[in-house]
Design a protein that fits this description.
heterotrimer, A mainly alpha (729), B alpha/beta (184), C alpha+beta (345), A: 729 residues, mainly alpha, 5 domains, 3-stranded antiparallel sheet, two-stranded parallel sheet, 59% helix, B: 184 residues, alpha/beta, Rossmann fold, 5 strands, globular, Centromere_Cenp-M (chain B), P-loop_NTPase (chain B), nucleus (chain B), Centromere protein M (chain B), chromosome (chain B)
Chain lengths: 729, 184, 345
């Protein structure tokens, strides 16, 4: 604080000198200006700046052509190219000192568009002027808004931090608080102090639960949860409206014209091409902000800080990151982390949770205010922007191999309002990234809304959802295999969140998921007439499910429901039958190894008898139909009376689904017949031609079938084929 | 009071009829335009502002297989009108032949109470609640596609399933208290 | 040229859009073609003004000439201010025979008698409208050209449109108008809006009006556009009826642009649930204001889409019928529940 006081002091003395010198200089400047009227624009701009530096306090504004003329010059330059740092300093000084009254102040502030950087000193001086108190509130608000807009362009922020206390004191002015939200993007963790929190709480008791105060408090809570004990209501909408920004479009224009001049400081590994127009969140709401682009020149002078910090922007390689891991300064705009792989790597390995919390807060805000509850409920105007944002987020999540907490909460809400087609690939992608949900919540949060969407949506949505569920299961299983601590059966699900789940809890969740997808697939196949595309996605899922024990070490085996098994088995495409055979083969291997482990160690899990009997039933059906030509003969499944079957007039009905007559294999049988037997009709089911036929099928690439036959029918093929066949023919 | 009855008329072969009820008449026309494009069956679309339907059309009105109430969440009137129309439907319709379609659900202007009220209404009638992005043509097309799926089932065109079965799977559940983001 | 002239010129130039400046200036006719050629119209307004000031100095133009330029601009862009309509009543026998020159002389004569320092400029526009520009002074100061009043009047019509008139000067202008048009009196027509043409069209009924008939109207046929036979509107008939009624009330096609309608209620508060307010003797005063970029079209849409009930309440339909958009509503008979709108003044 003392520092700030001295600032004001020096400021005043400075002003005094200026006004003395300007009195004499004023007239001559005017004369000179007359002479050089026809000079180039550059000169007149310099002149204009000189005018604003020297102009006397109390000069009238109305009817002052010189003033008008000069200001027009400055505006022209500002809107076309942006202002140089010195020009910014001059104009800001002029505006905030209100030497010509408050009238021109607003106009000047509006044209303060930096071409490159904003010098810190001038901002600090302006804050000092703010404290003098001559300036009306709306101008103050405008100034704060300006600072927020150009915040990432300010060269260095060390001194600004020092005067934060002053800025904070304006909190009491209600109108200022409303624009305050962004100011906390300054996010100086060190600045959260007990007395400030107390002050805010005091203010809240005076004004009631104002949304902007709550936002501020919730922000503080992010940084120092121990200071803010107040419970902040979770549903907060539109606490701060900082979309209306007088500089937005102009600044974009200036920056576009200047090309990459500003972004030159950025050296990100994932520097993308689209980056040129994504500058700050306030400019384009959903765009990722670029990382603070101004290189801190005064890093060496920051000795006053006990710990020398290194901004993340300055780190260019992984080695550098490792070196400076302990003293990294995060950028003001957390969203920029998403686009830099180094930053993501930092997030991944850093122990401090505050970075992740801040990123989550930013994400949550972006989702909530600008996507989920977009002002007009339509996404047409910024769908391109949103798409880019979601894709970037997905990219980051895939890089980290885990979802962000805020995207998770967003999804739970969004799924209940989703029409099933808006950003479908992105939403399903995000959905497949969510971490394990306790089985008590999973139904309510995810399954219920998805169910309603699934059954009313098109085939492609159904396929997409099944794929998403497969990915989700894969991810969960991978987490399990990575984080499972085998001794105490306790797993930490996520490297950052501290949710711990017991193994049985995890198993319950996975089981819920598998049953849910089984149900979806079952009914979906029925509704879509066993569409082969849907069947393929269903089998994809079960290819993961059948291997949970061996591949991912999860002691859990769930069989597919009959509604999945039979459509796959009776499918017209050979591929589906082949894949089903492969899945059954994997089940067999998993079950066998689980059994053997059960015998070996007491610890291993107990496979329920039902699972085994289901498995046996399926295998018997498959073998009987495909191999033994004994359809309808045994098993607890489909039972039909003999008379009925005879009545159907299907000749040799028991053979309808053997490897020869099954409609998936019929064409192969024909082919084989033509190739091998020629015109002569051989009794097919004799062991020799049968063996040849099976061999032929194997050579056609039906590996699943091959493995199925090898593991479940006769391990020493083809010698053992005969044993079943002889009974039949 | 003239009730609209689901089984008072015989169905036509390969034909399904859908009634779109929307008090604001914004979305129904564009939905109808997409719906009649369907090639696998003939889709008849009847548009209404509210129920009851005028008596004089009774004769040439086909059997209505599905009644859709389109509710614009940003307008209270829209919800009230739909609610008032419900009582002109025969109870038989609520066995899977009614669905609600909600627009502007993502708008910031929508009070949560209204959303909850719509959810409660749909849940109490065991009917599905669909959401639609009515502002883009893709959104309208997607909404029409979903309606068509339900319509086909309720018109009995899809083998192995019935309207009641499908509505059992898709009906809206009571509003759930979804966790809001909190950073505790 | 003196200072007021310079000021006025600067202001006029600032107001004329840059792309229109050249045409307006050539229309003005006070600047020669050669001079116009020498001006670079792509430079900034500020530089242009300087250049034009020099030219005007060269041509020795005065304030008078500059006011001509201003008039040209105002006639070209009449929709920049708020226009108020006034109605003349009780014409003399001589009223229909008043012609342009007569009116011009009379108006100038009467106004200058009422006020010493006043500068009047009258110009006949192509569409037979008389445009009058009055710069007011007072007994001691010269006419202030920075705050002129504009008056538009069509001879042989009973309406006058005025903009930028202060209440203090209203009686003077009214008297001059009444005398020069040979009417007995003038009153406020309770109609205002930003679009001058719209006010005139509304008052002179120059928009497509629809009258109720028992037979099927062309409107109904029009709405039966070619649509897919598989799509049928169940309530098409009532929709057509509503549309018909809405058009009867507000007119068909493009409607005059009004920006607002104001209802000043001075009626008793009636609410069975709120005894304390209902029992109060004095009327409950409030103002209801409807605003829109095109109020009449909005109202028509409300009625035809069923948001507002049909038949349209007289409160709304009297905007086009009576040609006014300011109403004071009072209780007709104390105690009765019917409300009517009574023309005020």
């Amino acid at each position: 604080m003392a520092e700030a006081f001295s600032l004001i002091h020096s400021d005043r003395s400075c002003l005094g000198e200026q006004s003395v010198s300007s009195q004499s200089g004023n007239r001559s400047v005017r004369v000179a200006e007359k002479e050089r009227r026809k000079n180039e624009a550059e000169d007149s701009f310099v002149l204009a700046l000189k005018y604003f530096t020297d102009v006397e306090a109390g000069t009238p504004v109305t009817g002052n052509d010189d003033f008008e003329n000069h200001l027009v010059q400055v505006e022209k330059v500002a809107y076309s190219r942006g202002l140089a740092p010195e020009a910014i300093a001059t104009m800001l000084e002029f505006a905030m000192s209100s030497r010509m009254g408050n009238g021109p102040c607003v106009r000047v502030l509006k044209c303060l568009l930096p071409a490159s950087v904003v010098p810190q000193d001038c901002v600090v001086r302006a804050v000092a002027w703010l404290c003098v108190g001559k300036i009306p509130v709306n101008t103050k608000v405008l100034f704060v808004k300006w600072v927020l807009t150009v915040f990432d362009m300010i060269e260095a922020k060390d001194q600004l931090r020092a005067v934060y206390g002053f800025i904070f004191s304006f909190v009491t002015e209600e109108t200022l608080v409303r624009v305050w939200h962004g100011y906390n993007c300054l996010c100086f963790v060190v600045l959260v102090r007990v007395f400030r929190v107390r002050k805010l709480l005091e203010l809240q008791s005076k004004l009631g639960r104002q949304p902007f105060l709550l936002h501020l408090l919730s922000l503080y809570k992010v940084f120092c949860p121990e200071l803010v004990t107040l419970s902040v209501p979770s549903r907060m909408r539109s606490g701060f409206k900082n979309h209306v920004n007088p500089w937005k479009s102009a600044l974009i224009g200036v920056q576009k014209r200047n090309g990459l001049q500003v972004a030159s400081g950025i050296s990100l590994t994932v520097a993308s091409k689209e980056k040129t127009n994504s500058r700050k969140r306030k400019l384009c709401h959903l765009e990722l902000p670029a990382m603070n682009s101004v290189v801190n020149n005064e890093a060496k002078t920051e000795q006053s800080y006990s710990l020398k910090v290194v901004p993340l922007v300055q780190i260019n390689s992984f080695a550098q990151l490792l070196e400076n891991m302990h003293r990294i300064e995060l950028p003001a705009q957390m969203g920029s982390l998403l686009s830099s792989s180094l930053a993501l790597q930092y997030l991944d390995c850093v122990q401090d949770e505050s970075a992740l919390l801040r990123l989550n807060f930013w994400l949550g805000h972006a989702f909530q205010e600008e996507f989920l509850f977009s002002g007009d409920g339509g996404a047409c105007q910024n769908s391109e922007e949103t798409l880019q944002f979601l894709n970037r987020l997905l990219c980051a999540q895939n890089f980290l191999q885990e979802g962000f907490y805020s995207s998770e909460t967003f999804l739970y809400k969004f799924l209940t309002l989703w029409d099933g087609s808006l950003f479908r690939p992105q939403i399903l992608g995000l959905l497949s990234n969510i971490p394990v949900i306790p089985s008590s919540q999973i139904e309510r949060l995810v399954f219920e809304p998805l169910k309603q969407l699934y059954f009313t949506s098109s085939l492609f949505f159904k396929c997409g959802l099944l794929e998403c569920m497969t990915n989700m299961l894969l991810r969960w299983l991978t987490w399990h295999s990575v984080y499972a601590l085998e001794d105490d059966l306790d797993i930490s699900l996520n490297s950052h969140t501290s949710i711990n789940m017991t193994l049985s809890g995890f198993k319950d969740s996975v089981m819920e998921l598998i049953h849910f997808v089984g149900h979806l697939a079952c009914v979906g196949l029925r509704l879509e007439g066993c569409h082969s595309l849907l069947l393929s996605f269903t089998l994809d899922f079960y290819e993961t499910v059948c291997d949970t024990f061996l591949k991912y070490g999860l002691p859990l085996l769930v069989m597919p429901p009959p509604g999945v098994f039979y459509p796959a088995f009776l499918a017209t495409e050979t591929v589906s039958v082949d894949r089903l055979a492969f899945i059954m083969h994997r089940y067999k291997i998993n079950l066998a190894s689980a059994k053997s482990q059960e015998k070996l160690t007491e610890q291993a899990f107990h496979i329920s008898r039902q699972t085994i009997s289901e498995f046996n039933h399926y295998v018997v059906v498959m073998v009987n139909c495909l191999w033994n030509s004994k359809m309808f003969h045994t098993g607890p499944g489909v039972q039909l009376r003999e008379e009925l079957l005879v009545k159907s007039n299907v000749p040799q009905y028991w053979k309808r689904f053997d490897l020869i007559h099954h409609h998936a294999f019929m064409s192969y049988a024909f082919d084989f017949h033509n190739q091998v037997c020629g015109k002569k009709s051989h009794p097919w089911h004799h062991s020799k031609p049968w063996g040849w036929y099976v061999e032929y099928l194997f050579t056609m690439g039906f590996d699943g079938l091959k493995q199925f036959v090898q593991t479940l029918i006769s391990p020493q093929l083809p010698a053992g084929i005969t044993q079943n066949q002889n009974q039949q023919t | 009071m003239s009730l609209l009855k689901p089984f008072s008329k015989l169905p036509n072969i390969n034909t399904a009829s859908i009634l779109l009820v929307e008090s604001e008449e914004h979305l129904q026309q564009s939905l109808a335009d997409v719906l009649v494009e369907e090639s696998s069956i003939t889709v008849n679309v009847r548009l209404a502002k509210s129920l009851p339907l005028p008596k004089e059309n009774d004769k040439d009105r086909p059997r209505i297989d599905l009644v859709v109430f389109i509710i614009n969440l940003s307008s209270e009137q829209s919800f009230i009108s739909a609610e008032a129309s419900l009582k002109y439907l025969d109870p038989g319709y609520f066995l899977g032949k009614v669905c609600f379609m909600v627009t502007s659900a993502r708008s910031a202007a929508v009070p949560t109470e209204r959303m909850d009220a719509v959810r409660k209404l749909a849940a109490s009638l065991h009917s599905p609640l669909l959401f639609a992005e009515h502002q883009t043509s893709e959104g309208v097309a997607a909404a029409a596609e979903r309606l068509l799926g339900i319509l086909k089932v309720s018109a009995g065109v899809v083998p192995m399933t019935t309207a009641l079965y499908l509505s059992n799977l898709t009906r809206c559940t009571l509003p759930t208290d979804i966790e809001q983001p909190s950073f505790d | 040229m003196n200072d007021p002239g310079k000021c006025l010129l600067k202001r006029v130039i600032r107001r004329i859009p840059a792309n229109m400046l050249k045409t307006t200036l050539s229309h003005w006719g006070r600047v020669s073609d050669a001079q116009l050629q020498s001006v670079d119209f792509t430079t900034s307004k500020w530089a242009l003004t300087e250049k034009l000031l020099n030219i005007c100095e060269e041509n020795e133009l005065t304030v008078k000439h500059v006011t001509e330029l201003e008039m040209i601009h105002v006639i070209d862009y009449p929709n920049l201010g708020m226009w108020y309509a006034f109605q003349l009543f009780d014409p003399d026998d001589a009223a229909p025979s008043v012609d342009m020159t007569q009116f011009k002389e009379q108006f100038k004569f009467h106004l200058s008698k009422l006020m010493r320092n006043v500068s009047v400029k009258i110009k006949k526009h192509t569409d037979e409208a008389i445009w009058i520009r009055v710069a007011w002074g007072d007994g001691f100061s010269r006419p202030n050209h920075m705050k002129p009043t504009y008056v538009v009047h069509h001879l042989q019509s009973s309406y006058v449109f005025v903009t930028r008139l202060t209440s203090k000067l209203k009686p003077l202008l009214s008297q001059a108008l009444v005398l020069s048009t040979r009417y007995q009196g003038i009153k406020d027509a309770n109609l205002s809006g930003r679009n001058l043409a719209a006010l005139r069209n509304l008052l002179m009924r120059q928009y497509q009006q629809v009258f109720s008939t028992k037979f099927s109207t062309p409107l109904a046929e029009k709405s039966e556009n070619i649509s897919n036979p598989q799509i049928e509107r169940e309530q098409a008939e009532s929709a057509t009826k509503r549309h018909q009624m809405a058009c009867e009330a507000f007119g068909d096609g493009v409607l005059p642009q009004l920006q607002s309608a104001v209802y000043k209620l001075e009626t008793k508060f009636r609410d069975h649930n709120n005894k304390t307010m209902t029992d109060r003797e004095e009327p409950f005063k409030c103002i209801v204001k409807f605003t829109s970029t095109n109020l009449l079209e909005s109202l028509r849409h409300c009625a035809s889409s069923g948001i507002a009930s049909t038949p349209v309440t007289p409160l709304l339909s009297s905007v086009p019928v009576k040609g006014r958009n300011y109403f004071v509503i009072t209780d007709n008979v104390p105690g009765s529940s019917s409300q009517t709108n009574r023309p005020q003044k």
